[in-house]
Design goal:
The protein is an alpha/beta fold. It has helices at about 25-40, 60-65, 95-105, 120-125, 135-155, 185-195, 220-230, 245-250, 275-280, 310-330, and strands spanning about 45-50, 65-75, 80-90, 110-115, 160-165, 205-210, 235-240, 260-265, 295. The strands form two sheets. A seven-stranded parallel β-sheet has the order 1-4-5-6-7-8-9. Strand 6 (about 205-210), helix 7 (about 220-230) and strand 7 form a beta-alpha-beta unit. Helix 3 (about 95-105) runs parallel beside helix 5 and helix 5 runs parallel beside helix 6. The longest helix has 21 residues, at about 135-155. The protein starts with about 25 loop residues before the first helix and ends with a helix.
Length: about 325
């Protein structure tokens, strides 16, 4: 079914930070965010974010604003500093809602905010023997914090909220990847608690990005369990490699569910051939309604501030390409 609020030209939220930006300088960050909003508007994006400019990485919106977590001196291969949960978390106030309110004042384009999913945080920070009975208990405490934050964000004018759980897609493969300290079923239950249906104003979407890359092969039953178990309004799916597994993830979607296709690779500077991209999208019409779809890059451009995946100019070219692909799909009707 066609939807007025598809936010067809989307992106994951994180953008390459301006050179020399100091996150501890509120005025500098505010100026950089204002400039980024103008750039997104010029690029015809149908959503705007603050680029994650005030934050160290895509988890920081939660980890920096709640108690109970300890930052370690270790860094993983993905560039993420490891954090450990030492007690059940408590929020001292809004996570991002205060900043989001200022973002909505800068433009009439729909403000978007991305948050780490509570299941992802629980799966990656839980350690036995530190006073928390289980990763599930930790996840449920985080889910209540995120659920409350989603309500605040909506009240402050945010129209699109994306929860990122990079572990989920690995678990819907025919050879499921490890899911950290949470089982697949517990991860779905925890994230569902955060996005459970609630009254939302017209045009508001709560999205889930379950990972940056499709598994080698999709277990259809597990994919359907993921979609059924997590009542998201929108699914943000990788679609940049042209694999059968990417198509199978779309095929398994419940009828009428919004979805966003990550059609350009955010990790390489080379631009995709438009005809090749369209040859992947066109066959979806046999089993999916493209009126429920949107397009975006495959992932954030700088989910870790210090490790941008592309240069700012390469990022701009990729975002221009996403806008062009959207016009090939839907003309000028966004």
């Amino acid at each position: 079914m066609a939807d007025t609020y598809n936010y067809r030209i989307d992106h994951h939220g994180s953008l390459v930070r301006p050179a020399g930006l100091v996150r501890d300088d509120p005025d500098a960050v505010a100026d950089a965010v204002a400039e980024a909003v103008v750039d997104q508007r010029k690029l015809r994006s149908t959503v705007v974010t603050d680029g994650d400019f005030p934050r160290e990485d895509f988890r920081s919106a939660v980890l920096d604003r709640v108690t109970g977590f300890r930052r370690t001196g270790e860094t993983g291969p993905d560039g993420l500093v490891r954090w450990v949960a030492e007690s059940l978390p408590k929020a001292d106030g809004p996570l991002l809602a205060d900043r989001a309110a200022r973002l909505s004042e800068l433009t009439l384009i729909a403000p978007k905010v991305s948050l780490p999913s509570p299941a992802y945080l629980a799966a990656t920070t839980y350690r036995p023997g530190l006073g928390i009975s289980s990763a599930r208990e930790l996840g449920e405490a985080l889910a209540e914090i995120v659920r409350a934050e989603i309500a605040l964000l909506i009240a402050n004018g945010v129209r699109l909220i994306q929860l990122n759980n990079p572990l989920l897609l690995g678990q819907v493969g025919t050879e499921p990847a490890p899911g950290g300290a949470l089982s697949f079923e517990d991860a779905l239950a925890v994230d569902a608690q955060a996005v459970r249906p609630a009254e939302r104003p017209e045009g508001v979407r709560v999205a889930v990005a379950p990972g940056w890359a499709a598994p080698a092969a999709v277990d259809r039953a597990r994919a359907e369990r993921m979609y059924a178990g997590l009542p998201a309004d929108r699914w943000v799916l990788p679609f940049d490699q042209g694999t059968a597994a990417e198509t199978d993830l779309v095929r398994a979607l419940p009828e009428g569910r919004d979805f966003c296709l990550g059609v350009v690779d955010a990790t390489v500077p080379a631009l995709e051939d438009i005809d090749t991209v369209m040859s992947r999208i066109d066959p979806l019409e046999a089993f999916a309604d493209l009126e429920d779809a949107a397009v975006s890059p495959s992932r954030g451009f700088a989910d870790v501030a210090a490790r941008p995946l592309l240069t700012a100019e390469d990022q701009r070219r990729k975002l221009v390409l996403v806008e062009t692909i959207a016009r090939y799909c839907w003309g000028n009707e966004f």
